């Protein structure tokens, strides 16, 4: 007790001192406002802010080492995924960190609530005036000129110097809500007439069905057998998955799966109403092409509500912490939403990426759609330099690009909208270094200076993503997007996991070291590009490329590579 007195005495004076009178260190700052935002006035001092504090983790480097150890096929520990408790030992903050930060907040009269299983994230609610004092910040109202949406943010914030090494970041502070964040990366081709569904036994350039996907990639129609094998589907921004639409879809296009359904989990006030008028294009797409392709694999729709700040990235964090809190999280998680990397702070990106590493170390394959803006980001936009997407730049998840059919015989080319490129936040991981170096050598000086040649490259893989047939509110329509590709590739992995579990083996978990070690297990896509930023973007080519990654799945080859 005596040894702790000097710490708490210092913290007492720290909490009540005025910020300019104490030693403060800038933790994060941004030089300019995001495009479209203008400051419209000071925030009212009594407006309450919900802030999240990320505490410095105990041993994040050890977690990454452990992740690679259990995910690299040549490792003696391959497939020996970590338990919930083992992961938490790496990321739980040191006792001194928790005590120091909580004592500081307590002395300031602020209640903190842990919001992650390991206690490395805290949530606080404070009025603007107190937030400005605590973090030497200037929270103000900013308005997005196009959407009119208002948000309260600051251009910089600081923490007491005594808390350096204990507080990693405070959110949301300098990360602004994106006008295109958490948008379904999916679009209906213009001029398409809604029509009745025709059962299609083979591929057509005008409509892709589950039968087409099975034919393209050799995916079996036989039902999975392992009930412990789970496939999770993320749902955001009040996109709801409709059971009646799934029934119509299956009755026509997968009658052998007639009666199949999906489970539901909710968080952050999420729900899944079943009115046909509330059926979401994105949610229906994701459910119909997981249930309809991963035959017999139990599928869960995880609906994330909007009880978080401004509909921004908190939902991405919350769903991972939600799953990390489970004893048995799903073996595969597919998400068809994303952001532009430059719209979020590096610290926030690092923390989210670390959360994916935690779930990957426990044996979950995390897949995200790469985006629909080619080299211009998540959605098409004007730009002078290429815009990486997030979380595709994170090295601990699998990014999925899109292809389209060139003929009904099954030829594929890159979809022009398939987002791909190189992260400005994360370096090239070792598992893809050789493949990326080879591509860059072949590219030469094309678009030199428009992208980071030493960044983590994406996408990793691809799947069909143009003219994919779905049912919404009882009617058929076709949609485009990398959001079609992610659930299709996720279904492929879920079926391989079923075979692995049936053979008494571990699921694949974090995929990338396995995928890049087996480039021959893909259909190499060598034509097309992903235009944007007034360029043709990157060309697809032999081997890995930043449009379609390693290519589209060859189910038999991938299954054989997995040892089943």
UniProtKB/TrEMBL annotation:
PROSITE patterns: SEDOLISIN
Organism: Phanerochaete carnosa (strain HHB-10118-sp) (White-rot fungus)
Its job: Secreted tripeptidyl-peptidase which degrades proteins at acidic pHs and is involved in virulence.
Catalytic activity: Release of an N-terminal tripeptide from a polypeptide
Keywords of the record: Calcium, Glycoprotein, Hydrolase, Metal-binding, Protease, Secreted, Serine protease, Signal, Virulence, Zymogen
Gene3D superfamilies given in the database record: Peptidase S8/S53 domain
Start and end residues of each Peptidase S53 domain: 207-564
Cell location: Secreted, Extracellular space
Enzyme Commission number: 3.4.14.10
UniProt record, GO biological process: proteolysis
Note describing how the cofactor binds: Binds 1 Ca(2+) ion per subunit.
The keyword Signal belongs to this UniProt entry's keyword annotation: yes
Classification via InterPro entries: Peptidase_S8/S53_dom, Peptidase_S8/S53_dom_sf, S53_propep, Sedolisin_dom, Tripeptidyl-peptidase_I
Active site (UniProt): 282, 286, 483
Descriptive protein name: tripeptidyl-peptidase II
A GO CC term attached to the entry: extracellular region
Molecular function, one GO term: metal ion binding
Keyword Aminoacyl-tRNA synthetase: no
Cofactor(s) required, per the database record: Ca(2+)
Residues spanning the signal sequence: 1-17
Pfam families: Peptidase_S8, Pro-kuma_activ
CDD domains in the record: Peptidases_S53, Pro-peptidase_S53
